[in-house]
Design goal:
4 copies of one chain form a homotetramer. The first copy, chain A, is mostly helical. The radius of gyration of chain A is 19 Å and the shape is elongated. Chain A has 11 helices and 2 strands. Chains A and B meet through helix 3, helix 5 and helix 8 of A and helix 3, helix 5 and helix 8 of B. Chains A, B, C, D: It comes from Teichococcus globiformis. Chains A, B, C, D: It holds the Pfam family FCD.
């Protein structure tokens, strides 16, 4: 079992993906102890910093937990849907992208509440309607979701936010497709919750509540990220 | 006096730039009252939302202040150096870019403190040394500054932060060039302060103080932004 | 119509309370324009800063909105339940207290995720069970809610957080009683949502996700605050 | 060597204090390795969670650092002045109090920028003048410092912030006295820096820059905290 080094930066991702894959397909089960750092180094022929990076990400995603003095354990298994909807090797990329979005979009939502014009608010409101309809039809959520987030970025009055979002467009839409794929298979309750998170953001922007808008956007992306990695579909 | 519409989005910037120019060259002086919204609409033949957007930015930059019920007043005059170092029409772009950087880099600094490897820390430390030397030689600060911020982004372990930074590269370097141009003409005290802000960031990353690193980076960019628009060179 | 000055600080609150009362009892309706600042000054015989303070709070609570150049308008009517459950004159106090809690408890939740011991986590988990049971029984929610928040503060490992919470105990419990009174009359959906917000906080503390815990706590208190002032019971 | 248990909560503090004392008086030196958790448990006859709590605080204060797989090491020695100015056993209390202040005062500064009246701004400005004069006279800084922070809290328009500050009054003033004692012995540069941090806060409140005011206050308290525990007087 050896990782094929592409670029140095990507080794940690590959290792992350391989361990994640074993958790998803059940070779590693909840409560199982992971091999030690040295064992992983040897098994995958990677350096210790690479192993630590992969473990730190698994930890950040809530997939493994550390018990002081006794190593790392599998904490939870992500949704089986996840593997049906995307190649495991891409999941690390999706999560990295969400991390950047949390930084960017918290701010664009906050600024949108401060600066949005009435026409910009109208675009956001219409995007929300389209998103609601797409949830009812159970199709088109990804496009509608992206349009909503782009409308909020545009309402920040700072074109650089839109530019960066468009630059990340492919990855963001892929992450959204995965998340909505899981949601579509999930309960009504879950779809309602996703819709409501968007409504709280839009409502704060409407009321010019800058802090609330930033907070609601951050919370929405935090929960989205959890929905991707979490086994419980109804999260 | 009419603004030539390029793209709709840019009208507010142009208006911002024109008013800023009048403040910088002294046609509008500290304490002067700006024309009313309607007067500005008429003078520049732009819509009311465009005027409001421009005023809101001038306000956010601390250049004008609002006295409830009696309009907007010039609060302070930015450095005369500013106009020597960049076309006024670009200043709005520089400030927009800094706004996005505050969101992105607060987070990359925070994550760098959590995840940086020893080699990544070494790169940051070396970038700090190069920056210190450039301040002493009074040349090369812009390259050294960018290298420092890129090293921090790389240490976040998330390549998307580096990718976005590189995407914004030109504008960031231009903003840094302007800021360092002003600093170079300024007091020793000012150069020491800029250097120290970078040291506080690096020190927090070294100590794995995630919250401190994010806070110090955010504060550094906040002060940088003020140094660009502020008339007082010793800020 | 004249306000009886108690202590200077409280005048703004009294005025806030009187305007709020008129909104609640329907004398001022959604979309109605408020009298101008000068008219309010004259009607209540208070100074302009007092009027502005009261308006700013009504604005912050999302009860009135400002249309530039044309004054303040009633945006929404808080729950009629609110007036049954507390004297209007106390609402300002409840909201003030929540404002302080948002600052304090975001931090205590964040620190709890970093520092909690296993016994402290057990206390939080038990408090959550008691809260869930109280929602099912539809009684005892206030005590259970306070016990949960106190358990989180204790898990921060910093006794000062607990001390300050206990110092504010009376007001906090009163605010909780009002909120739960409204929830009790509300839909099943609403009770489920309140319960879920607490679960997200506890789950993040369990996973030692410091940032998530702070975010989830802040979001919970933000939504609680909205539930107090909002007319829509199902918020 | 055994700790006398007062209240359970305080055991971690006592242990923290004892280890800190050994670092200050030089029994433990920079680069020295601390005994293992088990050895500390045995030496002080305390439980493992108590040891971990103490280590985590020393770590948070940047006094010790952890090298994965090989234990904890002394990172830096706090100022010798610290021990002259306060009993070591109180330092933990001072730091705990600062932790709560960071949460509270970031918010009160932010709200002050949004809501302050002109008279409240005047009180802040005068407090700043008194603080500046006290630095020049090298006496009275503690009272002046507290007056400044109280004036900011009052300008938040929320009396609960003032109430909580006054409730913590004794501990805050003691922490300030220690910090100013160290500053007084330090360089001119250091006093200038402390003064400047206060000015940045006041300036943001003056310009109604809410986000800047919160950020500047948080940064000021973060740096104050570092100044208490750091050996380098010129921080």
């Amino acid at each position: 079992m050896k990782l094929i080094p592409e670029r140095k930066q990507r080794l940690g991702d590959q290792l992350y993906g391989q361990i994640l894959e074993q958790i998803v397909d059940g070779r590693l089960r909840e409560g199982d102890r992971l091999p030690s750092e040295s064992q992983i180094c040897a098994a995958f022929q990677v350096s210790r910093p690479t192993v630590r990076e992969a473990l730190m990400r698994l930890h950040a995603d809530g997939l493994v937990t550390t018990r002081q003095g006794s190593g790392s354990y599998v904490q939870k298994r992500p949704s089986g849907h996840l593997t049906r909807l995307t190649r495991i090797s891409d999941v690390a990329g999706l999560l990295r992208c969400t991390e950047v979005r949390m930084a960017l979009e918290e701010r664009s939502a906050l600024l949108a509440a401060e600066r949005r014009t009435q026409p910009q608010m109208d675009v956001i409101a219409r995007a929300l309607d389209v998103l609601r309809a797409s949830f009812q039809r159970k199709e088109g959520q990804t496009d509608a979701d992206y349009a909503f987030h782009r409308a909020v970025a545009a309402a920040s009055g700072n074109t650089v936010f839109v530019e960066v979002l468009d630059h990340l467009n492919d990855t963001i839409q892929q992450a959204m497709a995965v998340a909505h794929g899981i949601t579509r298979d999930g309960s009504e309750e879950r779809a309602r919750r996703v819709m409501e998170e968007h409504e709280v953001v839009a409502d704060a922007i409407l009321r010019r509540d800058a802090e609330g808008a930033g907070l609601a956007m951050r919370y929405h992306l935090y929960r989205s990220r959890q929905r991707i990695t979490d086994r419980q579909r109804d999260l």
